[in-house]
Structure formats: structure tokens, C-alpha cells
Specification:
Number of helices: 13
Radius of gyration: 19 Å
Shape: globular
Order of helices and strands: EHEEEHHHHEEEHEHEHHEEEHHEHEH
Largest sheet: 7 strands, parallel
Strand order of the largest sheet: 5-2-1-9-10-13-14
Bound molecules: guanosine-5'-diphosphate
Distance between the termini: 15 Å
Length: about 325
């Protein structure tokens, strides 16, 4: 089965790692949000792309959900000693990724090419693409009238500002990747990983052409909200501040126009009727991925659910 998965960082990477254990490299394409990318210490940082790649390469730090495992912090501490900036933590190994990526970008290479080269070095066979080679910047507009870059909101201000709306600056002019568009056209199934709908999946859908291509395909989304809470990060807080009670059904509603199927947690079973009334087929199961076994089990269940959906539509 040919699958295209859309992913942000932490939640996305976990499911993608499960899918990559089951699907061979020629059957899985991962499209990763780059709206969180930014420049820091003159380096180009791509947090979600790195989280997905590190996770697939077995290099990810299981405690933080970002950065590399067995990291050292010599450079970070020396930078802090010199007065910073030090609000964004970069480990020594992680720094190497940003140094090499920035150097290659300055030599004129595209982010997708650099990602492919790094994946080869890290032994990743599956195809991982940034959503575009052109810059797209997620801007968080706050209730107090500020327009914050995503990392300024997420890391520096620890998600404290109350959000009002989001903007994906540069999206309308950004070019979609041909490989991604072809991948979607050839896909049997598109999966939205359990990533933040507002700031991980929506930016990908804002790239011209992707939404239209995805609308032609069976789509399954996995809820990042379990029991009214996000497993990690500000997804639930964002829904609240934008006037929604954060529930699995609210996530299904978020993507309603595109969804064939929706996967949500047993704890939220009471929302089943509402979701199915929207003609979305449900899979209710344990969607919390605590370890590798969970990731593989959930990926298997989703792919089986996908087969069932494809079978029904034939
Ligand atoms: P970010 O860009 O690093 O914030 O990464 P994502 O957008 O991919 O991931 C954040 C989302 O992943 C949050 O909304 C979490 O609730 C969700 N998430 C993290 N771990 C899990 C998990 O084990 N299961 C599910 N269903 N969602 C998860």
C-alpha cells in the first residue's frame, strides 16, 4: 500500500517510526512541516524535520522528544557563558546537523536535497521531504496584538501568550515539491499523523496544490488530543484559546472536509456517534505511543483500517 504521511515533530515522528517499521521504503513518503524553521546563531534550524529524521535513524532523544540521544552540551554552555543567546538549546551533535545544513544551503542546495543526503548518511531508506524548498514561516498572532515567530512563541515564551490566529507567511508563493505531489497522486492512502493540527498539519496543507491533491485520496487522521488534553505541547491550549473545547471530535471537525477515517482514543469513545454523523469512519483504539511496541501496534492498526476503507470504497 502506498502511503503519504503528513507530520510535525514529536507526535508525527512517533507514528512515522511505526509506519516505517511496517512499510518498505518505496511505499512510504513523509512530508514534514517546516513552518517552525528559523534562524538562530546564523544557523538554519528545522526542528520537525530533524525530529522525524533523528527518530527514524534511531538517534532521537527519547526523554526530550527533540535533539539527539547521548548529547553533550559543551558548546551550549560556552555560548551561555559568553552571554548567549541561549534560550534555544542546541546540543553538540545537533549543532553539526545545523552547521552542515546551513553550509549546504549557502552553497545553493535545496532543503529537500540536503535532507535526502543527510538521510542517506543516517541510514534512512524512507523518503522524507520538507513541505517545500521555499521558506514558509508560521506566525502566531496573539490576543495582545503581537505577531510572534513560532519558536519565539513556543520556546522563548513557553507558549504563554494567548493565541488569536495563525499565519503561514510565504505559503501562497511557495512551490510544492513535485516528488510530494506525485507521491500523493500515486498514494492509496494519506495519513495525518497525530501532530498539532494548527501549527504542524495546517502549514503543510497551506502549500499550494497539496490540499487539492489530498482531497482526491482517502485520508485518515490520528487525534493528537486524548481525553481533552494534548499528550505534549500546546494543541489543547490553542483550541481553548480559539474558543473550542479541545476534544477528539474537534480535531475530526478541523479536517472534516478531507477525512475518510479518523483514529481516536478509547477514552473518547463517547464522541463516536458525533464523528460518524459527519460520515467519517472511526477507529477507536489506544492511541498513546509510550514505546516502540505502541508505535508499531498503532501503525499496524491504522494500515489495517486503511485497507478496510479502501476495500469499502471499491
Ligand atoms: P511538534 O511540532 O514537535 O509540536 O510536534 P507535533 O505537532 O508532531 O506533535 C505534537 C502533538 O503530538 C501534540 O499535540 C501531542 O498531543 C501529540 N502527541 C504526542 N505524542 C502522542 C502520542 O503518543 N499519541 C498521540 N495520539 N498523540 C501524541
Amino acid at each position: 500500500m502506498n502511503v503519504v504521511a503528513l507530520a510535525g515533530g514529536v507526535g508525527g515522528a512517533k507514528l512515522v517510526a511505526g509506519l516505517a517499521k511496517i512499510l518498505p521504503p518505496d511505499q512510504l513518503i513523509v512530508v514534514v512541516n517546516t513552518g517552525d524553521d528559523f534562524e538562530y546563531l546564523n544557523l538554519r534550524i528545522s526542528p520537525d524535520l530533524d525530529t522525524v529524521c533523528y527518530t527514524l535513524a534511531g538517534l532521537a532523544n527519547p526523554e526530550t522528544g527533540w535533539g539527539q540521544r547521548d548529547e553533550t552540551w559543551v558548546t551550549y554552555h560556552s555560548i551561555a557563558q559568553l552571554g548567549g543567546p541561549d534560550w534555544f538549546r542546541l546540543g553538540d551533535k545537533d549543532l553539526a546537523t545545523h552547521l552542515i545544513r546551513t553550509r549546504k544551503l549557502s552553497q545553493g542546495k535545496a532543503l529537500s536535497t540536503i535532507t535526502r543526503e543527510h538521510c542517506q548518511r543516517w541510514g534512512i531508506g524512507h523518503r522524507i521531504y520538507p513541505m517545500s524548498d521555499d521558506p514558509i514561516e508560521t506566525i502566531v498572532h496573539t490576543q495582545s496584538g503581537d505577531a510572534l515567530g513560532f519558536q519565539e512563541y513556543f520556546v522563548h515564551q513557553a507558549c504563554q501568550p494567548v493565541v488569536k490566529s495563525f499565519e503561514f507567511k510565504g505559503a501562497e508563493k511557495a512551490k510544492p515539491l513535485t516528488a510530494v505531489l506525485e507521491g500523493i497522486q500515486n498514494a492509496d492512502l494519506v495519513i495525518f499523523a497525530p501532530s498539532n493540527p494548527w501549527v504542524s498539519i495546517d502549514p503543510i496543507l497551506a502549500v499550494p496544490g497539496y490540499r487539492q491533491a489530498i482531497a482526491e485520496k482517502p485520508v485518515i487522521a490520528v487525534s493528537p488530543i486524548i481525553g481533552g488534553k494534548a499528550v505534549k505541547g500546546p494543541a489543547a491550549k490553542m483550541y481553548q484559546e480559539l474558543g473550542f473545547v479541545p476534544t477528539a471530535a474537534v480535531v475530526a471537525n478541523h479536517f472534516r472536509q478531507l477525512l475518510t477515517g479518523f483514529v481516536f482514543d478509547t477514552i473518547d469513545r463517547s464522541e463516536l456517534e458525533k464523528i460518524e454523523r459527519w460520515r467519517i469512519i472511526s477507529l477507536v483504539t489506544n492511541i498513546l505511543m509510550k514505546d516502540e511496541q505502541d508505535r508499531i501496534r498503532l501503525a499496524e492498526e491504522i494500515l489495517r483500517f486503511g485497507e478496510m476503507i479502501l476495500h469499502r470504497s471499491r
